[in-house]
Design a protein that fits this description.
Helix content: 25-40%
Strand content: 35-45%
Shape: globular
Structural class: alpha+beta
Strand order of the largest sheet: 1-2-3-4-6-5
Radius of gyration: 15 Å
Largest sheet: 6 strands, antiparallel
Length: 150
């Protein structure tokens, strides 16, 4: 999908977000995306990002994701077996959000995410999905980190 098509799809999502009362901004760092902050339990917050993740004959797909943890690469960093096993078990338990690991240059980013077709996305679905991925990511952050960094 070309850049103009991605931006058009994100603008459609931005219109749905406005109807849902969700404050998102279009950003271009690392490619076009929508970014916002979601309030979760106990006064904590989570970043939420929406990117165009593909295209099908039915139209563009988006992935809504929220970062849970950053784990440095190297001898004293990395992803523990305990964390990976926990994420796999959470993937089995959760109905709507799943966990993934994104490898970057110097670290791994653990995210909660969910996918949707842009053309059938409605405000209630977007609001629920943002809340689900933000809460799922926050649950992992609380269990495996000492702060509210994401």
């Amino acid at each position: 999908m070309d850049l103009n098509a991605e931006i058009a799809a994100l603008n459609k999502v931005l219109n749905v977000a406005t109807l849902a009362g969700i404050n998102l901004e279009l950003v271009s760092q690392g490619g076009p995306a929508l970014r916002g902050v979601w309030n979760v339990a106990d006064g904590r917050t989570q970043q939420v990002r929406i990117v165009v993740s593909g295209s099908t004959p039915s139209g563009p797909l988006i992935t809504i994701w929220s970062p849970a943890l950053e784990k440095k690469k190297g001898v004293f960093g990395g992803l523990s077996a305990k964390l990976m096993q926990h994420l796999l078990m959470e993937n089995h338990k959760r109905s709507f959000a799943r966990f993934a690991v994104i490898e970057r240059k110097d670290d791994y980013l653990v995210v909660a995410n969910i996918d949707h077709f842009v053309d059938t996305l409605d405000p209630d679905e977007l609001r629920a999905s943002c809340g689900l991925v933000a809460s799922a990511a926050d649950d992992i952050e609380k269990q495996f980190s000492s702060g509210d960094d994401m």
